[in-house]
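Protocol step 4 of 6.
Sequence for AraC family transcriptional regulator CmrA (Archangium gephyra) entered exactly as in the expression construct, tag removed. Do not edit the line below.
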Amino acid sequence: MNALLELRAVTRRLTEHRGTFATALPGVILIRGDAPSAPTPVLYAPRVCIGIEGLKELAVGERLVTYGPGEELVASLTLPVTGRITVAPYTAFTMELDPVEIAEMALSVPPRESSDAGFISGPACPQLLDAVLRAVRMLENPEEIPTLGPLVRKEILFRVLNGPHGSMLRRIILKEGYVAQIARAVTWIREHYTERLHVDAVARRVGMSPTSFHRHFKAVTAMSPLQYQKQLRLQEARHLLLAEAIDVGTASSRVGYESPTQFTREFARAFGAPPRRDAERMRASMTAA
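Step 5 output, structure tokens:
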């Protein structure tokens, strides 16, 4: 049995129904979907995802990224995305990426040319699939995790950094070039997303001209700085409306909107329904699940 077929068999045993499953291996999550899904906005922190079966499509700003069986998805930055399962059944392996682990290993990995995109997919090398298979097997033998878990995490990270999609991670962590400057800008916007965004001031903060900053920010994130901030605001507002059952005006104010009318219009455009109706729909979906 090849690695991908065995990955499919083991993952199905570990995920008996659809959902997202945290595991005993730090930072590792297994995902299963039994049917195509509606587009779902989510914030992707740095991670590597390995498609096992099915197909997932992710919209990142103006960029559309897909990955399926035997393919890897590398998110180098925290980015708001909209994802949907297009082919089911769907299963995937996800490992969150720790900046400290990346920094420790990045110096030993030779640099190589790669895309400027902070969110990219492509074929996973056989060595990466083998390492992921060992990690998934370990979940059926949890007594191995304290000793072997850190080793297999390091191998997966090494394979990602040494592969065609790992150069962005290396450049961000080692603060190489404009990519690291954009990464600092993304962090600043994320930490101050409720405030009025003065793009030229953020460009100066990271040591770039406004023109260069706009161009490189879009190359890395597939969206403008203002679009990035808006997506953060809308996703946080959606979370507040669902988790705290607050009114629309309060939610819009807490995420930085001055006009509830503008908030409602942009929310409906992003999520397909006005805020209150979207929250009711989400609660009904969670109850049905």
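Step 6, annotate. The two ends are 33 Å apart (CA to CA).
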